[in-house]
Amino acid sequence: MSDVSRAISITDRLLAWDMLDSAASVLETSLESNPYNPELLRRLGRVRLAQGLPQEAIPYLKLAIQHDQMREVLGGDPRVNVTKPH
Fold first, then answer.
1. What is the pLDDT of residue 75?
2. How many structural domains are present in the chain?
């Protein structure tokens, strides 16, 4: 199981238990080594929304869309030079 798959699995369990802060922490840690992964970005954006933090969610959701689009343009290449949200 890859690091990303493991983070997604753990996050799913934490969200099932309504442990939003812990889920966000797992996603943030995974994004440190996988900053261009659209699924991690999308999930963190959704967690931020669930936490009632829409302004923090927006950059992650935008980046997820950008990386999805860039993967299509680059034929699936996950390396995209887009900055991480602050």
1. 67
2. 1
pLDDT band at 19; cut points 50, 70, 90: very high
* C-alpha closest to that of 44 among 75, 80, 15, 73: 15
pLDDT attached to residue 86: 43
pLDDT of residue 78: 52
How far is 10 from 54, CA to CA, in rounded Å? 23
Domain-embedded: residue 8: yes
Query: Whats the size of the chain, residue-wise?
Result: 86
Helix (H, G, I), strand (E, B) or coil at 28: helix
What Rg, from alpha-carbon coordinates, does the chain have? 13
